[in-house]
Amino acid sequence: MPTLKHVQKVWTNFLKKEGFEAHTLSSLRLISASKGTCVAELNVASQHLNRLGGCHGGLLSTIVDVGGSLAIAASDMHATGISTDLNVSFVSGAKLGDTLSIISRCHKVGGSLAYTDVEITVDEKVIALGRHTKFVRIAHKANAQKKMDGEE
To answer: Where is the Thioesterase domain (predicted)?
Structure first.
C-alpha cells in the first residue's frame, strides 16, 4: 500500500474513535507522505486560539503528538505506540486564518521506542518545533497481528 494511503487509513482510525484528536484536529489535511515522513496542513480556526487571539500552545502540542504518530505510521506501522516524552519549543505565533504547515519525521522505530520530530511553520516562518518519543513494543505486536490478518 502506498505510504500516503496507509497514513490516511491510520488517521481515519484516529478520527473514528471520536477522541481528543477528532475534536481538535478534524480539519487536518494530509498533503503527502513518504517513508518516515508526513506533511500536513491545518487552517487556524477560532477554536484553536487562546484568550489573546493567538494559536494556543495546547493545539501546537497536540499537533506535535499527532504529527509524531503519523510519522511513525509512515514508517509502515499500523499502531503508533504510547507517548513517553513530548517537548515543544514555541518559537513564534500564529493567528486566525493562518495555514499551519506541518512536517513530521520519524528518525527511528526501534524495538521499544520510536523517535520523531515535528516542525510547524506559517509561510516558512517557524512557529513551533517539537520532539516526540513513543513506546512501540506493544505496537509491534499489533502490527504483526494486522499483517497476519492481511490488513495491510
So the answer is: 53-124
Would you say residue 77 has pLDDT above 70? yes
| CA atoms in the 13 A half-sphere facing the CB of 118 | 32
Which string of b and e fits 34-68 if b means at least 16 CB within 10 Å? eebbbbbebebeeebbeeeebbbeebbbbbbbbbb
pLDDT at 150 over 70: no
Grid cell listed for 120: 510547524
**What DSSP line would sit under 65-82, residue for residue?**
HHHHHHHHHTTT-SS--E
Other CB atoms within 10 A of residue 79 CB: 20
Please give the torsion angle defined by the CA atoms of residues 116, 120, 126 and 130, in that order, rounded to the nearest 10 degrees.
-30
**In sequence order, which residues have a C-beta less than 8 Å from that of residue 21 and are 6 or more positions away?**
14, 15, 62, 66
Which domains, ranges and CATH numbers included, belong to the chain?
A: 3-148 (3.10.129.10)
